Amino acid sequence: MAFPGLLNYWFVVILMMIGFFIVIAHGNLVKKIVGLNVFQISVFLFYITMGKVDGGSAPILAEGIEVYSNPLPHVLILTAIVVGVATTALGLALVVRINESYGTIEEDEIGAMEDDA
Amino acid sequence: MIFQHLPILQILIPLLAAPLALLLRTPLLSWALALVASWASLAVSVALLLRVLAEGVVVYELGDWAAPWGIEYRIDALNGFVLIIISLIGAIVVPYAKRSVEAEVQDRRIYLFYTMLLLCMSGLLGITITGDAFNLFVFLEVSSLSTYVLISLGRDRRALIAAYRYLIVGTIGATFYIIGVGLLYMSTGSLNIGDLARLVPALADNRTVQAGMAFLTLGLSIKAAVFPLHLWLPNAYTYAPSAVTVFLAATATKVAVYALIRVVFTIFGGVDLFEAFGVHTTLMMMAIVAMFVGSIVAVYQGNIKRMLAYSSIAQIGYIILGLSFDSVTGVTAGIVHLFNHALTKGGLFMAMGCIALVAGSVRLDDMAGLGKRMPVTMAAFVAGGLSLIGVPLTVGFVSKWYLIKAALEQGSMLIAMLIVLSSLIAVAYVWRVVEVAYFRDPPDGDTAVREAPVSMLVPMLILVGASVYFGIDASTTLDIAGAAAAALMGVGG
Q1: Interface contacts (A, B; CB < 8 Å)
Q2: B interface test, pick of A33, A34, A76 with most B CB neighbours within 10 Å
Q3: B109 in the Ramachandran plot: left (φ > 0), alpha (ψ -120 to 50) or beta?
Q4: Does the pLDDT at position A116 exceed 60?
Q5: In this structure, are residues B220 and B283 in contact, taking their beta carbons and an 8 Å threshold?
Q6: How many domains does chain A divide into?
Q7: Tell me, what's the ipTM?
Q8: CA–CA separation, A10 vs A15, rounded Å?
């Protein structure tokens, strides 16, 4: 298979693992949200790659356009991007409220406070 | 004319009521609107189920676009039944919520509570009613996002942490689900669940399809809190406002289990999944471990809301165990337990809400003498507790009877014994509460009866009464669950 071949899919997996690792390994609540974003973005990339047809153009009816990419996965992922934005907004809003009531956004410090309580 | 559009009304009523409740802003008006919307949804789902039972599968094409290109809503006995569970619990929770929420949520946030409750309800109904795998994801996120907000409305600041943790885990679960849908779309070119069920068997050996199956199952198992993916659940249930806990415990995990049933028995129904990948044994092992770990951890909890949350993990284990038998009896047991457990746990968490309102605490140490001070609430708790254990004349018994019957059908005496044994642990954790509430004197010798308001007692008694009624006369629920299971297994061969 010619370049780029499965390169995109490799990037999907690498990004996914990076995102996942950040979510698990970082104690900072904002960084966790960022990790979650990277994780979700890998899925966006996955859907976009899936719909691409080699040599295909945008799916517009016009003279000379014979081969075009599948628009459906792209439309689907637009929905998922919107959901991702909403999730990020809600997650960050929660972090603000957590910061207001605990005075910190570090997971281990919050954990220490809850043990005392 | 309007009857033709019942499937879409099921979603539209709560979905449109939600922004209206937001605009009304006054607690009383938004509550009244939620009440009307939730009872209207209940009426719609009853009408739908009756139609399904009379005429067979109801199909509704959105915007008249034929499936598999358009999105279709498809109601059969299984999701008709689940729709009833959601809207019934919704209709009972809203009147209950009024006083409970006034006490537990800040005044200026009460209208937001009803907005989110309605959104959550429409999301859950949507997951259940849709026949499109991607549409299911959208509704999954509608319900999840509103759930995170509902949990964060709790009085305790730990509710914020619980909501945040659930947001992280829930988003990972939902993202796994779309990865799975994507992998299936890559290999089949379809998103329609019925269409997928037709296309997947031919591709059963395809590694992409198999990976898709793995992602779908894992993602939905996280949302359903199937052991060992349950860690988000105890804190979320403990710190959420009482009315939210009632609604979530009775519906949210049930709907995720429903989606799991769809994936395993409908989409992959034509593939001999249980044989091919050993999904059967894996699920069964996880279910049995959940039954024991959930129950044993429950015994050691000082906070009774958290105790009931761990008990939920064990109960989800029973549902999954029923499904893992892969027989009509087993799946019937699983489906009927969806309903039975919703009634039981809903009633029990409502009792907790009453105790939280009147006594101000749901810790075991503060419950001394409550049997005298809150006789109605504690009686309801005991009835619910008996149903958790599976005592005859309660719904819990019906579920366990079918589970044991399914185990014996497979010739597995061992599993039947394990079901009984794990139920005995439930005796231990229910008894701890009974002992403290009935046999210990209140700390200050105060035995004056102070009950929760009628608006909270009546919904609680309805749920507990239903869990006894359907325990004595289980023919209705078992007929529907049996029909749903037969339809599922019929497809599965």
Answers
A1: 68
A2: A76
A3: alpha
A4: no
A5: no
A6: 1
A7: 0.93
A8: 9
